[in-house]
């Protein structure tokens, strides 16, 4: 094949007669290396009736490969196709016209032409266009011809591109153009695009997806790479096909390189050789200098480039780089901001460093100053760090701490890049670092940093190095971080006092800090069941959050607002706030990020409460693994307990207990007493349902729950932590057969929560009272409480809290519906819905058995011990007394004696009633 530098030969006797190179009239022979692109071929098929298809990208994105695949696809389908690979010689109008004539005339012929081929080429635009139109207009009834022109960018600025533009504009309907080129189109096609006659394919379309990366690696003999490595490679190279091909060849030679993807940079020889030879070396001097000087920037805009290059025409240079396909990508539709492909930028910076490292550092300093003046303080810090000016970077971070840390969740990682001897001089940075580390639950580190900051503030005050106003502000910030430490550490009584004091005294705080004070106060009041002020504090916090440049603060705020609304029974509003926050978190930090998980687990809990189990499962499957890295103790309670309940629903008791064990470990690691108590209460509830009363009593003794009821009764300063302890206490009292004590305590909590309008907690206690009343054979009290509880739960959509109770509640609901029918009351649709859901979740036999009339209940006279429960479970599955005795190593007479004790305790007289009565009472699950 001839090189692109070869010049076509003109006959001496006829200067317009052009001998043609046949290799240009056929696609390159690369079929064996093509990765199928069915996704793009489908789009091209859909665009088959559109006259003009433009495929544009920098080099190495598979542009030519896609053209070839579409060409072969059309050829196999019997369509007329023609191909022309353009090179710099085609800038000559006569040469280009001669080639166009040939492809237009030969397009409907089978197979490539043989022998020598020549055509006459015109030198005037008007004559050239007329000769071309005479060819295509002479076949008005012929099938469509698809004309493929590759490397069209070589025609830029020539008469050849002008004649092509005119031909496209005047072509008959049966002529379709499929053009490939680097960079931006060099054609005048604005009118066609406005009329929907152009189909565009750009870099984003051509980038390989992960599945295509796998195919590419396999084609090069690289396989057995796990999915996470594939994702990392795809992300590092941003789907750039040429780079992925080079990486595949490297991995073929040295598979261990897959462990070091971070060093797959543009400085590696495999990439730098390509960038140097195929890109940079091909550019004119003014563009080469522009590329090198602006390579220090992660984001480029014309005014900034003007400063770095000391020119005033950088907008034109940016457009020129884009039109030449120099790996420059627009970041917005207005083409105000651009960026280089990261590997290309790394290559350029290496070239600049090798040529003049001093200039590289100077450009970073200039860029830092420009960003600082423009208000982009994070980028100003990054540029100072890149220029190795640590002190300047620290000064920027210190001056604009609230802006940097308040809008970037991982700003602490940047601060930790500063040397300790520098960062310790800036208490503002230390305290900003503390706030983010508090959210990461690194409490001991935070206490140490606050100690250093306190000493530095005292030193600055003693040496009179700062004005009093600055010192006062630093003292307020220190107090705010102490407040945040208490809030994240779940010390709500302290939070309530500190937040109120700072709201009154720190009125000139940064908007983020000011908003966090109202969020903290809302959080503390919620934990004290002061729910009437939640929406007022939400409004006050939102007033300040709206002043921030992004939604990071709002995400953290909504992570507290959502559960607060759920506690108050405003379920729809809770889901709305959490859904909005989840979208913002994913936009800021990405899907499956710890920030997104902080919100998603609360959303999963809300969906679980409404019996929307598929939504709850999906959210936990995606996010629970990331929920232990950042946020509040609430999310740990919501995430692990909801997952455990789902596992129990699935019959996976081991998985459910494993979730509770993980929560216990997490609670111990971070000293989260509230999480430990809620996990304990949940564990005791399940143990009771499984009849393991001895284990319940043992755990009660271990955790100090065999105390007086007055020690766990509600009082004026109670928090949800006290409620969790009371829940656990009631379970232990039930196991110890102290039903009156348990009922009395439950009623105290129920009255307190009803007064506070804490609907979700009140519903939970109402169900506990109903169940204890059933165990005490007070059926009417149980039904009264159930009716009242459902009246609160129905408007809120609290469904799952009932369904999780199982068989005993099912029987009570049946009696409830029968009573309302007998008394002529309106049918309780909520009760009927609960009953339908309960029956749908059980087998037909067990569901039917509940509806049979039961004998008049009597109180449970004593808790069943473990041996009695073992016997009762065997009775429930139909074993005979003799079989039970053989399994337990006792005589048949002993089995009968134990059965009599069981009958006496649960109030039945026949073996056939025992198991079902135990289910009704919630003794058997």
Look at the structure and name the CATH superfamily of the domain at 10-206.
P-loop containing nucleotide triphosphate hydrolases
Helices and strands: which structural class? Answer: mainly alpha
* Mean pLDDT across every amino acid position: 87
The strands making up the biggest β-sheet line up spatially as: 4-6-7-3-8
Which of globular, elongated, flat, extended, rod-shaped describes the shape?
A: globular
Number of helices: 47
- Terminal CA distance reads 80 Å
Can you tell me the CATH class of the domain at 10-206?
A: Alpha Beta
Helix content: 55-70%
The largest sheet, given as strand count, sense and whether it forms a barrel, is: 5 strands, parallel
Q: Name the beta content range.
A: 5-15%
CATH fold-level assignment of the domain at 10-206: Rossmann fold
Radius of gyration: 38 Å
Note poorly predicted spans: 1-15, 843-857
What would you call the quaternary organization? single chain
Named at the architecture level, the CATH assignment of the domain at 10-206 is 3-Layer(aba) Sandwich
Q: Compute the number of strand runs.
A: 11
What does this structure look like?
Helix content is 63%, strand content 5%. The protein is built from 47 helices and eleven strands. It has a five-stranded parallel β-sheet, with helices on both faces. A three-stranded antiparallel β-sheet has the order 1-2-5, with helices on one face. Strand 10 and strand 11 form a beta hairpin. The model is unreliable at 1-15 and 843-857 (pLDDT under 50).
């Amino acid at each position: 094949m001839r090189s692109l530098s070869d010049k076509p030969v003109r006959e001496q006797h006829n200067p317009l007669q052009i001998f043609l190179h046949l290799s240009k009239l056929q696609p390159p022979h690369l079929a064996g290396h093509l990765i199928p692109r069915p996704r793009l071929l489908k789009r091209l098929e859909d665009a088959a009736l559109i006259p003009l298809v433009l495929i544009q990208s920098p080099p190495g994105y598979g542009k030519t490969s896609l053209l070839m695949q579409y060409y072969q696809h059309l050829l196999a389908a019997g369509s007329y196709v023609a191909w022309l690979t353009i090179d710099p010689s085609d800038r000559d109008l006569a040469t280009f016209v001669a080639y166009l004539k040939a492809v237009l005339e030969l397009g409907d012929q089978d197979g490539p032409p043989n022998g020598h081929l020549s055509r006459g080429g015109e030198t005037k635009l008007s004559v050239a266009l007329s000769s071309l139109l005479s060819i295509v207009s002479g076949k008005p009834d012929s099938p469509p011809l698809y004309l493929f022109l590759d490397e069209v960018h070589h025609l830029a600025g020539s008469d050849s591109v002008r004649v092509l533009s005119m031909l496209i504009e005047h072509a008959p309907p049966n002529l379709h153009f499929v053009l490939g080129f680097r960079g931006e189109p060099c054609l005048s096609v604005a009118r066609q695009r406005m009329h929907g006659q152009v189909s565009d394919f750009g870099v984003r379309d051509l980038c390989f997806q992960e599945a295509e990366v796998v195919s590419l690696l396999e084609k090069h003999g690289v396989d057995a790479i796990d999915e996470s490595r594939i994702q990392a490679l795809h992300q590092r190279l941003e789907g750039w096909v040429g780079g992925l091909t080079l990486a595949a060849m490297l991995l073929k030679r040295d598979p261990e390189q897959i462990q070091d993807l971070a060093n797959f940079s543009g400085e590696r020889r495999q990439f730098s050789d390509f960038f140097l030879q195929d890109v940079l070396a091909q550019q004119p001097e003014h563009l080469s200098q522009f590329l090198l000087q602006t390579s220090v920037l992660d984001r480029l805009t014309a005014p900034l480039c003007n400063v770095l290059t000391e020119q005033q025409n950088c907008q034109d240079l940016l457009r020129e780089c884009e039109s030449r396909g120099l790996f420059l990508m627009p970041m917005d539709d207005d083409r105000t901001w651009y960026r280089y492909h990261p590997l290309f930028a790394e290559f350029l910076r290496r070239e600049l460093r090798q040529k003049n490292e001093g200039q590289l550092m100077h450009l970073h300093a200039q860029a830092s100053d420009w960003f600082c003046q423009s208000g982009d303080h994070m980028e100003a810090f990054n540029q100072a760090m890149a220029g190795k000016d640590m002190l300047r970077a620290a000064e920027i971070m210190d001056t604009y701490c609230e802006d940097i840390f308040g809008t970037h969740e991982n700003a602490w990682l940047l601060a930790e890049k500063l040397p300790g001897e520098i960062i310790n001089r800036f208490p503002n940075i230390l305290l900003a670092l503390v706030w983010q580390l508090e959210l990461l639950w690194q409490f001991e580190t935070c206490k140490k940093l606050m100690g250093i900051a306190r000493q530095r503030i005292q030193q600055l005050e003693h040496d009179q190095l700062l004005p009093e106003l600055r010192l006062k502000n630093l003292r307020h910030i220190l107090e705010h971080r102490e407040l945040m430490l208490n809030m994240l550490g779940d010390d709500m009584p302290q939070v309530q006092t500190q937040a109120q004091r700072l709201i009154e005294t720190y009125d000139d705080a940064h908007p983020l800090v000011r908003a966090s004070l109202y969020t903290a106060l809302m959080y503390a009041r919620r934990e004290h069941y002061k729910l009437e002020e939640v929406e007022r504090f939400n409004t006050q916090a939102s007033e300040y959050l709206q002043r921030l440049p992004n939604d990071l603060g709002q995400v953290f705020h909504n992570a507290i607002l959502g559960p607060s609304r759920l506690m108050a029974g405003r379920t729809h509003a809770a889901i709305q706030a959490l859904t909005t926050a989840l979208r913002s978190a994913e936009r800021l930090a990405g899907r499956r990020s710890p920030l997104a998980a902080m919100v998603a687990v609360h959303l999963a809990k809300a969906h679980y409460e409404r019996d929307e189990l598929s939504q709850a499962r999906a959210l936990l499957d995606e996010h629970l693994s990331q929920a232990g890295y950042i946020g509040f103790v609430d999310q740990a309670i919501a995430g692990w307990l909801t997952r455990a309940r789902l596992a129990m629903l699935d019959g996976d008791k081991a998985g459910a207990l494993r979730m509770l064990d993980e929560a216990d470990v997490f609670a111990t690691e971070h000293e989260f007493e509230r999480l430990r108590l809620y996990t304990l209460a949940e564990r005791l509830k399940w143990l009771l349902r499984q009849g393991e009363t001895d284990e319940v009593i043992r755990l009660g003794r271990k955790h100090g729950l065999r105390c007086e009821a007055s020690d766990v009764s509600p009082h004026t300063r109670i928090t949800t932590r006290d409620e969790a302890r009371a829940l656990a206490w009631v379970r232990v009292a039930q196991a110890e057969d102290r039903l009156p004590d348990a009922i009395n305590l439950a009623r105290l909590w129920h009255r307190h929560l009803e007064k506070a309008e804490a609907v979700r907690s009140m519903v939970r206690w109402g169900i506990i009272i109903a169940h204890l009343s059933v165990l005490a054979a007070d059926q009417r009290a149980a039904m009264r409480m159930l009716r009242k509880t459902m009246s609160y739960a129905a408007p809120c959509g609290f469904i799952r809290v009932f369904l999780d109770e199982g068989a005993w509640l099912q029987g009570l609901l049946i009696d409830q519906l029968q009573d309302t029918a007998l008394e002529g009351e309106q049918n309780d649709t909520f009760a009927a819905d609960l009953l339908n859901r309960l029956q749908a979740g059980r087998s037909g036999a067990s569901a039917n058995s509940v509806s049979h009339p039961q004998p008049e209940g009597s109180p449970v006279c004593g808790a069943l011990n473990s041996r009695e429960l073992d016997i009762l479970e065997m009775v429930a599955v139909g074993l005979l007394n003799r079989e039970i005795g053989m399994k337990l190593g006792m005589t048949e007479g002993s089995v009968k004696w134990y059965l009599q004790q069981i009958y006496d305790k649960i109030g039945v007289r026949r073996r056939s009633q025992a198991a079902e009565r135990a289910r009704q009472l919630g003794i058997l699950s």
